[in-house]
Amino acid sequence: FEDFAGQYLELHSKINNKSWKNSDLHNLNILKRYFSGKYLYEITPMMIERFKTERIKEVSRRHVPLSPATVNRNLACLKCMFNKAIQWGKLEENPFKAVKLLKENNKRLRYLEKEEIVRLLSSCSKRLRPIVVLDLNTGMRKGEILGLKWQDIDFKQGIIYLYNTKNGEKREIPINEMAKTALIRTLKHPDSPYVFYAKNGSLLKDIR
Prior knowledge:
There is one protein chain. By secondary structure, the chain is mainly alpha-helical. The chain has 8 helices and 3 strands. It has a 3-stranded antiparallel sheet with strand order 1-2-3, with no helix packed on it. Strand 1 (about 155) and strand 2 form a beta hairpin. The longest helix is centred in the middle third of the chain and has 20 residues, at about 70-85. The relative contact order is 0.09.
């Protein structure tokens, strides 16, 4: 299993997934804790069900129970691994076909009230505030905001052009005056194309 996980990472993940370090690599490290030392053909649906049961009982680094969505991402990686193993002639049958993903609760609970937005923004640091303002006023995903480049913003037309989206399609995001003002006031890095950047001007990987 662990040998094939390395092949899967090199031949599939790194080529097809730009965020492989935060997705496939993370998932594979978790899967290897359970399945290392086993041949692919030895892994049964019952073993996968046991992994699912044990994994959902774990807690995150923030000491909260793992969500079904988190466990499902681990399972989705495992399923894709088995599919590739079949395509590459290393396995005849996918044991995952008898396994169901956990039910997720994706219901939106509520939107922020105006008073809550004011409190949120007042709690933000100077560096974080424009990121939150842009998110509140455009609905852009975190990865889209952190990867935003100045060349993708048309201030005259009031549009942000997104090319590397989740579904691979180009998107045009209208920006209102509040979002535009926040962007204009954001300090540019002389050697970085990114609107929001790490200390050395490189891509900002995450925010808290």
